[in-house]
Amino acid sequence: MSNTPFLPASINTTTYQGRTYFQNLPPNLVNRVYFDPNTTNLVFQGQFVDDQIGEKYLFLNVLLGADLAAVQGLCNSSDADYSKWILAVANLATPLYAFHENPFIPGSYVADASQTVTDYSADLVAVTSSEQQVDSYALSATGRAGLHQLHRRQLHQSRPCGEPVSIYIARVAPPLYSDN
To answer: By percentage, how much of the chain surpasses pLDDT 90?
Structure first.
């Protein structure tokens, strides 16, 4: 999200169900980038696609390369608000909240508001602490095929003890996608 109290006049938009969508985006972004006039936020979100026919796939919440250029290019460079638009896109970020036990109410948890905000255009959002809240994880392979990745899964340290630590090994191998 990025706080954007305006939309430049040169951007073609469509309003649907209280959100303002951008007409000139490619299909992979058209439903994932929008302006929410209620919060005045420019929003970009990842999406899990569960097609009835075909494969399931994930659009990561990463805005790089051609996708970033497409969002930036929505505003005409001669528009008076062009620099504000570029800044709003550059400031797209997601807050990462860490939780700790409330010292005044044992067994309840409060958010730590001091966590930093992760920039979408820099890289994948990195969960760096077991105290950070996540609603789901996605595994993405980059680099050479044939490599093995080791993943450790453990419950949040403030949860009840006794749960095992799980180790997963994933092998990255071609073909990464099969259309059979």
So the answer is: 28
